[in-house]
């Protein structure tokens, strides 16, 4: 396994984004609205740093709105619901299946079965109150976070080529069109910046594994 890859830091980055995509901010940490969090966010490379600056700018603006009485976590949660829940349907469906073909309207398909098998092989089980399909972007990032955590602690048994293949074939294969839908539905919103960070981290990780 590649020794020069910051597995622990990557695990933490993937976990933060993954968890942020699975529950509205009123049910999770609100650190994404703190500019200091983004200043301290790992700048794996210049592209990740630039994406982090987008999130920092959103957080700074959220701070100004909060001074005027706005509830920042509530605003982000309303955006979350409109994007990923509905009604009547998500503005930006968070499941890989929806991006595997044209005019897909059912968020359950081959990608779901593939992720179920990968999770089973890793000894992982999805437990969430919303009963999300396993090919949810948040779950894919949390799966990748766990692989990175195992590598950081020496528990890993997954070949670097298999991790690289997962990144390329799953989250990185559809995060761009997913981000496009999010950006169209909620331009300059919290989640467009968050997904841009995730995309840039995935791209950086893939380059490290390709060495």
TrEMBL record:
<keyword id="KW-0143">Chaperone</keyword>
<dbReference type="InterPro" id="IPR020945">
    <property type="entry name" value="DMSO/NO3_reduct_chaperone"/>
</dbReference>
<dbReference type="InterPro" id="IPR036411">
    <property type="entry name" value="TorD-like_sf"/>
</dbReference>
<dbReference type="InterPro" id="IPR050289">
    <property type="entry name" value="TorD/DmsD_chaperones"/>
</dbReference>
<protein>
    <submittedName>
        <fullName>Molecular chaperone TorD</fullName>
    </submittedName>
</protein>
<dbReference type="Pfam" id="PF02613">
    <property type="entry name" value="Nitrate_red_del"/>
</dbReference>
